[in-house]
Amino acid sequence: MPQAIDTDCMNLKLIYNFTYRLTGNIRIAETLIRETVSSSPETLDNEQALLKLVWRRFLFCYGNVSFTAKEELQQFLLELAPEIRAVLILRDILGLSVSQISAITGSPEDEILPLLAAGRRNLSRKKKPARITA
Predict the structure, then answer these.
(1) What sign does the dihedral 89-94-98-102 (CA atoms) show?
(2) Which residues contact 84 (CB under 8 A, 6 or more apart)?
(3) If 0-12 CB within 10 Å is exposed, 13-18 middle and 19+ buried, where does residue 48 land?
(4) Most exposed of 2, 5, 84, 119 (fewest Cβ within 10 Å)?
């Protein structure tokens, strides 16, 4: 995590990973965290509450913004709809459960698995086959 957000709080490291993967942009990720923590400092010790707040702030401020990234995998993530991107990040990168993801995103639990499957399908289509050389 960049020096601009210097803390020993493990929750902020998790939140940074989430916001960075959502946006592909260090400055925007840091801004989202700063604004979320400054508006709700009481949630600093509650990982799920922080993720929920930062997700809502992301949707409000950047939900309709198209981001780009230099890394191929990050660019693939950024090409997904924000809801699908969030579910993939929360499950496959951060390892959260379906019920936790539902609580964070506000999507019903029975919608999480189809979103996750759609995201995984889209990412698998983007992967280039390995180049075989003789």
Answers:
(1) negative
(2) 115, 118, 119, 122
(3) middle
(4) 2
